[in-house]
Amino acid sequence: MKEKITRINRTLFELETGVFIFGILCQILVVLVRDKAEYSLGLWLGIVIAMISAVHMWWSLDRALDSGERQAVKVMSMHNIVRYIFIVAAFALIAISGFADPLAAFLGIMSLKASAYMHFITQKISTLIYGKEILPPLIEEPVKGQNI
């Protein structure tokens, strides 16, 4: 178990890094709003929700791929519904309670999407930390003299 926890998936690391970078960039916008504390709290609550969602996405995909071909779609669908219910419930709690800015929280939650678009940046950061990723070729080339 400890081995699995300490070994971080590289794609998850890149996604989480993008979410964090987006949060920092959005925090710069705090100078434009009237209630700076409410904006910041909403933004970072949204960022935390996005990070939890990313970990859950990685975990559920890992589980679904281990469950077999027929069950994978059902497992992923169930976990997607659970994740969306969590996001909606957390967002509703923020909006109803009024202790944080719901629009800033929505901006933080959308950092998950922004992070996916910033993949080329986060991949460079990941390469600096982990080194070059070595992937097997997608198409196997036939050996010379071997008939297909």
Cα shape: flat
What percent of residues adopt helix (DSSP H or I)? over 70%
Distinct helical segment count: 7
Q: Total number of β-strand segments? A: 0
The N- and C-terminal alpha carbons lie at a distance of: 43 Å
Structural class: mainly alpha
What's the order of the H and E elements? HHHHHHH
Query: Average pLDDT across residues?
Result: 83
**How large is the share of residues in beta strands?**
under 5%
Uncertain stretches: 1-6
**Gyration radius from CA atoms, angstroms:** 20 Å
Largest beta-sheet characterization: none
Number of individual domains: 1
Structure characterization notes:
- By secondary structure, the chain is mainly α.
- It has one domain (2-130).
- It is 74% helix and 0% strand.
- The chain is built from seven helices and no strands.
- Helix 2 (10-27) packs antiparallel against helix 3 (36-66) and helix 4 (69-97) runs antiparallel to helix 5 (102-109).
- It is flat, with a radius of gyration of 20 Å.
- The termini are far apart.
Properties at a glance:
mainly alpha, single chain, 7 helices
Short description:
With 148 residues, the protein is mostly helical.
Summarize the topology.
Layout: H1 2-6, H2 10-27, H3 36-66, H4 69-97, H5 102-109, H6 111-117, H7 119-130
Helix pairs in contact: 2-3, 2-6, 2-7, 3-4, 3-5, 4-5
